[in-house]
Amino acid sequence: MKLDKNSLAAKLAMIVFALAFAAITAFKPLLLGVLAGAVIVAIKAGIGCRYGAVGKRAAFVLAMVYLVTAIILSHFLELIIPSISHLLSQTVLFHAAISLLLIFAGYETIKRIQCGFDISNKTFLAMAIPCPVCFGATLISCYFIAEALRISGIAVGLLVGAIIAAGIILLSLQKKENPERLGKIMILLGVYYIFGMLLIPAVIQGMSFKYSFPESFSPYSLLLLFILALGALKGVKKYA
Predict the structure, then answer these.
(1) Residues 6 or more apart in contact with residue 121 via CB below 8 angstroms
(2) Dist CA 48 CA 127 (whole Å)
(3) Residue 213: phi, psi to the nearest 5?
(4) What is the DSSP string of 100-113?
(5) Cα dist from 176 to 4, 55, 189, whole Å
(6) Mean pLDDT across the chain
(7) Any transmembrane segments, and where (predicted)?
(8) Cα-to-chain-centroid distance, residue 106
């Protein structure tokens, strides 16, 4: 059943999701890092499946791969944390390589489509398959959720992996789009990865601190809640 984005149910769902997101983020700010990292990975892989010429079974298998990957990373999280700064510093090279791969794959996809050939069932892999950058984002999400909820082991991986897998499946179930758009998205994502390399030093520095947040509301939490509520209201008005 297709849900109309202009229906009352869709608007209410948007409001509930926005308020739940705002409340969780206000009480546990580290969960914002969890959601950000997991959602970015899910969007990257999910859009690749949505715009590429792939079936539902392939998208489901890919989602399970990401789920298992998150569980494995969380299992070895305590062993990886001491050297995480060194590992993240190495992702600069991976960012450069993957950005070039995405730009090249996007260009080839657009070029072949204009010539009457659809190769999106191959080039979508540049976005969909787990890459070192995805591993890094998943690892950071596992770290944040372990710090925020004080849990460890497989439970961390299940939570992060479930967010990623659900995002991939939901995006892949959407109406298939023109593969030429996949090429444009890959080029834009490649450029984004290039700019993302500039943020890695800040992430490394941030990971070197021990996070500790109060359980109760603070003025900063209230300010964050207010800003997110305004964003939700703006989104509802946009689709009204």
Answers:
(1) 52, 53, 54
(2) 5
(3) -125, 145
(4) HHHHHHHHHHHHHH
(5) 17, 10, 19
(6) 72
(7) 7-24, 30-47, 59-81, 87-104, 124-146, 152-173, 185-205, 217-236
(8) 20
- What b-and-e string marks burial along 81-115, b requiring 16 or more CB atoms within 10 Å of the CB? eeebeebbeebeebbeebbebbbebbbbbbebbee
Q: DSSP letter for 53, please.
A: T
Contact between residue 200 and residue 89 where contact means Cβ atoms under 8 Å apart? yes
Q: Work out the angle between the directed axes of helices 30-51 and 132-149 (0-180°, nearest 10).
A: 150
Q: Give me the DSSP letters along 164-227.
A: HHHHHHHHHTSPP--HHHHHHHHHHHHHHHHHHGGGHHHHHHHHTSPP---SS--HHHHHHHHH
Alpha-helical segments (H) within 76-153: 77-80, 84-114, 120-123, 125-128, 132-149
pLDDT in tens, 185-196: 888 888 877 776
Task: Return the higher-pLDDT residue of 48 and 153.
Answer: 48
Tokens, residue 2: 């297709």
Residue 210 φ/ψ, nearest 5 degrees: -90, 125
pLDDT tens profile 195-216? 766 665 555 555 554 444 444 4
Q: CA 171, CA 130: separation in Å to the nearest integer? A: 16
Place of tokens 């990401």: 66
pTM reported for the whole predicted model: 0.67
**Calpha distance 68→78 (Å, rounded):** 17
